[in-house]
Write a structure and sequence with these properties.
Rossmann fold; alpha/beta; elongated; eight-stranded mixed sheet; six-stranded parallel sheet; 833 residues
Length: 833
């Protein structure tokens, strides 16, 4: 199909390019912005014989540029998008049955290569804006070159750049040690005057930019293109300008985070008689053409991802742009006539800036790249990468993939093989963290969380003023909650993105089944390394040991555990920008292999009982502690023994019988020695494992201890045959003449029997124990049980002081019998006794 091509500067290299691709199949094209390389070259190659009716694939680094390039080519071809020319981004596909030129974002190409490395039906792959050194571009180019060297030697590959740094790409695309040809189009640039307007040291960026825009509007005609680092700064400058610029001037934002309608409006010229100020990120630096611009105001800043190996986190960082980026931005003012570029930095500072931008492969998280390379199958050191990944960064990326379950743990020189889970993760066009969450959780909730994290926050306002709770945003997406700060258009895009992810993952997308409060449990699957436990309200400790925080009034401040999805990247005291709460059971369930249970038996003072405390820990984080009645076992027995030891036997149920038994044995040991055992506190404590522990088997706590019969237990410890003689040598009671047994108190200073004097009438010989060696002490009592005499010589008492005692008792108790010779009198007991 012949298409009439516009007369643009790129036309001068079309002939050499056709020849290079016909003969050598590789080429590098260098042309300044606006030369027409993006739109003209694909159309010019359509009818080449080697194309033979197959498709031409054009790779763009940004979604906005992808749509714009497809639309521009369709206009040139007099066709609708989706006809001859179509496009596909992560979220959108407009490719028809007769599409011959497909404009894709880099990730789409990588997915196609992974599914079928031969790229059937594709004649040539054109990588546009390779100088931007995006990681997906570098990786897609490496895969395409690898496929071409083995499976598709006929595949043509073109690398296009807007800068002069083309020799590196020429060497990369070269074959048989011969560099690919470099074809340069001079372009038709008009002179651009540079005016330096350095920002004051403490001057706010939005104020400095507004000042430069006012001057630019006043100094000359034409539309103004303003380069700012991000959408936040765009909104700030927009607020500064809307009420201050002259009538007849339109202020329009341009960024990838905006809706398609807003982007199209920014790219469209203002009506006749009106001027336009376009506030743009670096998206307008190379790939896009913004018509009518002859003034550029450049903040000199860009937002770029930076990976901190120390923290394991990637964050968007505002950095000073390189000199080649500054030249490309300035060149936008000289497309159609002489222009002016206002730079908000000094000429001296300009000379100190880097010549070229740094490659993303040296700056960002490499987990996605490591997963893609593993799925591809070619070792990283055999791929044609301009800059090899850093060893440390690659090791850290692979370790993350091991932690996520995508790789098996490495062994020796094997970096770790991809698991079945890892292969499923490669099917999803999201970061491996989010892919793991989607595959493992398998829910619409996981898809919504992934969509929220993979795009700009749908809540508008100063980042420091926004709540950090991801569950709140999930509720906004599902419609369960509302918030005036939510951008409805952004929420709609998140829903569409989440539905697309669910479709790719084979997940039913049912918003009614989504529970926002479960966001933390899902998020933990993606960020197991960013689990944090509360130290005090608003202050958290990450699993790695580093500190993190949220504002004291944030809804997450009081949560016991949170997962931090977006952290500002500081090594210490990092602020959690986005996270979700979860409980200990969620953690234990998700990270079961890493959770350690520390079971500890101890005596609970409040319960006065033995309890088992089960503490669950995850690294430096204490998840929870649960208290329960312990189960029988050796550890429980040991704990009970420890309790008895710590109380010096007081925890045991010492009945009077048991106490008397110890005293009887102690008496016999004192009087007779061995084999009577030592049952002193010290001796019993030293031998608890021998005499007590066997009896505690199966016991669990205080109530079990209280059921012990220590008198039976201790008596069983007496050696044979001495134990059989205990009751004879140290009887529990003395049988008095009346036939009654009077208990012997062995706890007194001497074994003592308390008995009424009338009960020992007829006793002529003093009673003794220990085989007659030790006389009993008799505590003689009156009929009213009052002491009248203590004696260890009853015959002496009868013969001596009894007569005086008798007269006193007879006067006090006249109804009782008081014999003059009690040693021969029969024992008598009064009825009132």
């Amino acid at each position: 199909m012949a298409v009439e091509l516009p007369d643009l500067p790129i036309g001068e290299v079309l002939g050499p390019l056709r020849a290079a691709l016909r003969d050598g199949r590789r080429a590098v094209v260098v042309a300044p912005p606006g030369a027409g390389k993006t739109t003209v070259i694909p159309l010019a190659l359509l009818d080449e014989p080697w194309v033979d009716g197959r498709r031409i694939v054009v790779l763009e680094p940004r979604r906005l540029a992808t749509r714009a390039a497809a639309r521009r080519m369709s206009v040139l071809a007099g066709d609708e998008v989706g006809g001859l020319v179509g496009y596909q981004t992560r979220d959108e596909r407009r490719i028809g049955r007769r599409t011959r030129i497909e404009v894709l974002t880099e990730g789409v190409l990588t997915r196609r290569l992974q599914r079928d490395p031969e790229l059937p039906g594709v004649a040539v792959v054109i990588f546009d804006e390779v100088h931007e050194r995006n990681l997906p571009t570098d990786l897609g180019l490496a895969f395409a070159l690898d496929a071409a060297s083995t499976l598709r030697p006929d595949l043509r590959i073109v690398a296009m750049s807007a800068t002069a740094d083309a020799e590196v790409f020429a060497a990369l695309l070269g074959r048989a040690h011969e560099a690919a040809p470099v074809l340069r189009a001079a372009g038709r640039m008009h002179p651009v005057e540079t005016r330096w307007m350095p920002r004051a040291q403490r001057e706010r960026l939005d104020v400095a930019v507004a000042r430069a825009v006012h001057r630019a509007i006043a100094d000359g005609p034409g539309d103004v293109l303003v380069f700012l680092p991000g959408i936040g700064e765009i909104r700030q400058v927009q607020r500064q300008l809307v009420d201050e610029v002259a009538a007849g001037v339109d202020v329009r934002p341009l960024a990838g985070a905006l809706s398609t309608a807003e982007q199209d409006e920014a790219l469209s010229p203002s009506p006749p008689g009106r001027r336009r100020i376009v506030l743009s990120t670096d998206i307008a630096e190379t790939s896009l053409t913004v018509e009518g611009v002859r003034i550029v105001v450049d903040s000199g800043l860009a937002r770029q991802p930076r990976f901190d190996i120390g923290t394991g986190m990637t964050r968007l960082t505002t950095v000073a742009i390189s000199r080649d980026s500054a030249e490309q931005r300035a060149g936008r003012a000289g497309r159609t006539e002489p222009g002016v570029a206002y730079r908000l930095w000094s000429k001296v500072e300009h000379g100190t800036r880097q010549r070229h931008r740094q490659a993303e492969i040296t700056q960002v998280d490499l987990a996605g790249m490591a997963l893609e390379i593993a799925a591809w199958g070619t070792p990283v050191d055999e791929l044609a990468l301009i800059d090899p990944p850093g060893d440390r960064a690659l090791r850290q990326a692979r370790q993350l993939l091991v932690d996520l379950g995508a790789f098996e743990p490495p062994a020796d020189d094997d970096p770790g093989r991809m698991t079945a889970l890892g292969r499923r993760m490669t099917d999803l066009p999201v970061h491996p963290r989010l892919a793991r969450m989607i595959v493992e959780h398998g829910s619409a909730l996981a898809c919504i969380v992934a969509a929220l994290l993979d795009d700009r926050d749908p809540m508008r306002g100063r980042p420091d003023d926004l709540p950090a709770d991801l569950a709140l945003r999930v509720g906004l997406v599902t419609g369960a909650t509302s918030d005036e700060r939510a951008d409805r258009g952004a929420l709609h895009r998140v829903r569409e993105r989440a539905a697309d992810i669910a479709s790719r993952a084979g997940i039913r997308f049912d918003l009614d089944a989504v529970r926002p409060d479960d966001a933390g449990a899902a998020l933990l699957l993606a960020y197991p390394d960013r689990l944090a436990g509360r130290r005090r309200p608003g202050q958290f400790q990450l699993r790695t040991g580093a500190g993190a925080w949220v504002a004291p009034d944030d809804s997450l401040a009081a949560e016991a555990f949170v997962v931090a999805a977006d952290v500002d990247g500081r090594r210490s005291g990092a602020r959690i920008r986005l996270g979700a709460a979860l409980d200990a059971d969620d953690i234990a369930s998700t990270l079961a292999a890493d959770v350690v249970e520390d079971r500890h038996l101890s005596w609970d003072a409040d319960r006065d009982d033995l309890v088992e405390r089960v503490e669950r820990r995850l690294g430096a984080l204490r998840l929870d502690e649960r208290t329960s009645r312990p189960l029988p076992g050796a550890a429980t027995t040991d704990a009970l023994i420890a309790r008895v030891r710590s109380t010096r036997l007081a925890a045991l149920p010492w009945s009077d019988a048991a106490t008397q038994l110890r005293a009887r044995v102690a008496l016999l040991r004192r009087e007779l020695g061995e084999p009577w055992p030592d049952w002193s506190d010290r001796a019993l404590l030293a031998t608890l494992d021998d005499w007590l522990a066997p009896m505690l088997v199966g016991m669990c706590g205080r109530t079990d201890l209280e059921r012990l019969d220590l008198s039976v237990l201790l008596r069983a410890q007496l050696p044979w045959p001495a134990g059989a003689e205990l009751d004879e040598l140290a009887p529990m009671a003395w049988r008095i003449p009346s036939g009654r047994h009077a208990p012997i108190d062995y706890l007194a200073d001497r074994p003592t029997v308390a008995v009424r004097v009338q009960d020992v009438y007829g006793v002529g010989a003093h009673p003794a124990i220990v085989g007659g060696r030790l006389p009993l002490t008799l505590a003689l009592l009156s009929p009213a049980d009052r002491p009248i005499q203590v004696t260890a010589d009853l015959p002496g008492f009868w013969a001596g002081s009894w007569s005086d005692v008798r007269r006193e008792l007879a006067g006090r108790y006249p109804k009782h019998h008081w014999p003059t010779d009690p040693a021969t009198a029969p024992p008598r007991r009064m009825r009132d006794r």
